[in-house]
Amino acid sequence: MENTKQFVRGLVLLPFLTVGSPIAMFHNNVVAFSPEAQSTYVSLSEEHAKKIDAYFSTRSMPLEGYGAKMVKVAEENNIDWRLLPAIAIKESTGGKFACHNNPFGWGSCQIKFKNFDEAIDTVAMNLGGNNPATERFYKNTETKIKLHHYNGTVVPTYTHEVMKFMDLIEQGA
């Protein structure tokens, strides 16, 4: 019971700790990252993009070169940076067997995209819970739950297989 009270207190205090006092909202204070923090953030994003592209490159996958795009939209949609490339690997061997520019098999591969960029944007938006039509499956859920809804109800091993690809991407394997 005491742990529950502490948790609830933390939820109440969290907005104040992250935003500041309610009075501070009326001031035009600009918070900027220090140059060191910015370079660390950029370096990490670049490192992630390089890992994705390296994985695709060593396997001659058509999605090579889309690593930076995938990392960017993952950050914008608050999803794991490895999720999109891992799904693409599982669904289309990194774009080798993409149907209609749809390397993610989104919509059982019935949805056609103009290009890979549009597919990346659309799938990231959905997985991030930012589409009212699909948010009930993806909004505020952890990666394993997202994968379960994505295809885990049809293929019981799906979540595990995609998570394995995520690990391989991160390891640079």
UniProtKB/TrEMBL annotation:
Superkingdom assignment: Bacteria
Protein name in UniProt: Transglycosylase SLT domain-containing protein
Taxonomic path: Bacteria, Candidatus Nomuraibacteriota
